[in-house]
């Protein structure tokens, strides 16, 4: 069984690689990553001989033969990163999925991590998979949102005309170990700021809500959907935590762990969705027994513990560069 | 002034080429077309030495130098065509626009014909450009709708990060001479059926509405927006006729010209939008003096006259093949 994971050096991708290596039927695992937002350190613990790491843009993937299972996770996922290089983001997702379809063995399975961002700034809550979304296809988040939507279209249309076996998940916010300290999203921002004794910065009033899933729970959902559960359902499938928490509440929780840290407010990020919460009806049907198990507070504590051990965080200069670029990207 | 038109052999593209040739400042006009849905006969009247025709997929365009103006029209636009080859449709639009951006001279202008299909099955009427749409990104029309949305995202994000000069229009339904007889959409279907003494086939009850713009009026709108009018507005700009007419009314009007022709109803086309009408507020502001001038009835009469002279229509076998394939594509 030859398996390929694009973006396997990333936050979620590297956890998926770990999980795939628990499978005996996986004889070869090719990790494809250009280490743009992924990091080699996310894979440095792996000694398994089945793993090969290929450093390349997925959309430029050379001939690597055919695979039985392909998981396409290659994409930046945080606004400052994709807003900095929007065309590259589109290429990774859209041309990436077209390239990977060519590397799929007949009757092989291609799994894709789409995103709750396909719902944009949703007008219904919680969001069922049937909700068509409210995305500004000309806006500053469009490279990510629209390339994920277009990649879904490619997969579902490939299934319709060619019978391709697909599994498409829509991930809601995920947090936990291996998030980049300069990722730029709330949980990792707040923790890395607090750890360095800097103020916690909240974009806007912080009343925007998200549904944060701890990475172990999310990977468990992916594993069940992609290979453990005998389901023919192609997706789209919401995978996330349906406990909705405001950004300011996250900031306050992190602050409770670092009591001297102030919270400061910055101008709102452009077109920041006001709310986000998965309708898990289909997940409950397709993945019986699956649910997010790690309470949010415990997840934050675990993330703090991981970030505390992360040497990189002590490099203020690195973080300042990242902060500068976040600022320029977000506050147009 | 070097100008490139992708899809210049198509229905709208070839009319745009004719219009561009009226400009003295256009010294070279490269038509890029793979003649998938475009036709060489649409260009056979052109003797102008400035025109060069390059038969290639736009996404595989070889090095042709840099251009001052590029107009990207290459895409099938009719459901049976794009539903037959959805991945090729995505490639033409998305990889096409990425490729064309590389062929744009610094400070050059790229114009893109997007579509009212970015609104999907709209929940507001008329549709202003700010309406975010109701598109099923997993549905049988998604290859077209989502690749147009994604191409818009690419252009607006290219403008944001690189200052690229862009002009994006969203075309509503267009009809008139040079439509393929086997295009598969209402007006051309009805006329070609009636001309051959066959029943007029209406998908569903025919109460779905469209806004049909006669091609001369639409090309006039494009010319004004793309080069005649001194506007920095990048779009998106609705260009269409805001007179909303039901499909059954079109069928009846064509029937009034061919009184013995029956109208028969077929099952509805999948995810056929129920309504479509442009809000022209921005068009009225940006293109003062422009409006659709040709009354719909006169446009139909002109289209009938053109189709009557078109020899291809008399080839029943050709049409039957097209009808078969329309049926298989539309009635899943």
Q: Can you walk through the features of this model?
A:
Two copies of one chain form a homodimer. The first copy, chain A, has 332 residues and is an alpha/beta fold. Helix content of chain A is 37%, strand content 18%. Chain A folds into two domains: 2-174 and 212-239, 3-Layer(aba) Sandwich (Rossmann fold), CATH 3.40.50; 176-210 and 243-274 and 294-330, UDP-galactose 4-epimerase, domain 1. Chain A has helices spanning 11-20, 79-84, 86-102, 142-162, 186-195, 215-228, 247-257, 281-286, 296-309, 316-330; strands spanning 2-6, 28-33, 51-55, 67-72, 104-115, 165-171, 174-175, 200-203, 209-210, 213-214, 237-239, 245-246, 263-266. In chain A, strands 3-2-1-4-5-6-11 form a seven-stranded parallel beta sheet, with helices on both faces. Chain A binds chain B through residues 83-87, 90-91, 94-95, 98, 101, 118, 120, 132-140, 142-143, 145-147, 149-150, 152-154, 156-158, 160-161, 168, 235-236, 332, and chain B through 83-87, 90-91, 94-95, 98, 101, 118, 120, 132-140, 142-143, 145-147, 149-150, 152-154, 156-158, 160-161, 168, 235-236, 332. Chains A, B: It is found in: Golgi apparatus membrane; Golgi apparatus, Golgi stack membrane.
């Amino acid at each position: 069984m030859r398996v390929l994971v694009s973006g396997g050096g990333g936050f979620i991708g590297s956890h998926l690689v770990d999980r795939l290596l628990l499978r005996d039927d996986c004889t070869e695992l090719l990790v494809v990553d250009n280490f743009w937002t992924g990091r080699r350190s996310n894979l440095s613990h792996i000694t398994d001989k089945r793993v090969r790491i290929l450093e390349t843009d997925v959309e430029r993937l050379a001939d690597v033969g055919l695979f039985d299972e392909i998981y396409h996770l290659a994409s930046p996922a945080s606004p400052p990163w994709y807003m900095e290089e929007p065309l590259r983001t589109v290429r990774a997702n859209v041309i990436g999925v077209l390239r990977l379809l060519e590397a799929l063995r007949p009757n092989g399975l291609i799994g894709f991590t789409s995103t709750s961002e396909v719902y944009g700034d949703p007008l219904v809550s919680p969001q069922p998979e049937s909700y068509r979304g409210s995305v500004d296809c000309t806006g500053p988040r469009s490279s990510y949102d629209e390339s994920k939507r277009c990649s879904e279209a490619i997969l579902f249309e490939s299934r319709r005309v060619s019978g391709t076996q697909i599994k498409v998940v829509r991930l809601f916010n995920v947090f936990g170990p291996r998030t980049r300290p300069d990722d730029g999203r709330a949980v990792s921002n707040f923790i890395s700021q607090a750890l360095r004794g800097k103020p916690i910065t909240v974009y806007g009033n912080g009343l925007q809500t998200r549904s944060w899933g701890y990475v172990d729970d999310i990977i468990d959902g992916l594993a069940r959907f992609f290979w453990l559960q005998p389901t023919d359902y192609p997706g789209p499938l919401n995978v996330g935590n349906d406990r909705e928490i405001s950004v300011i509440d996250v900031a306050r929780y992190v602050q409770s762990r670092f009591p001297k840290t102030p919270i400061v407010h910055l101008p709102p990020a452009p077109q920041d969705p006001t709310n986000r919460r998965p309708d898990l009806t289909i997940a409950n049907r397709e993945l019986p027994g699956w649910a997010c198990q790690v309470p949010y507070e415990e997840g934050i504590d675990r993330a703090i513990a991981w970030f505390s051990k992360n040497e990189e965080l002590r490099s203020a200069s690195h973080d300042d560069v990242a902060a500068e670029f976040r600022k320029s990207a977000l506050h147009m």
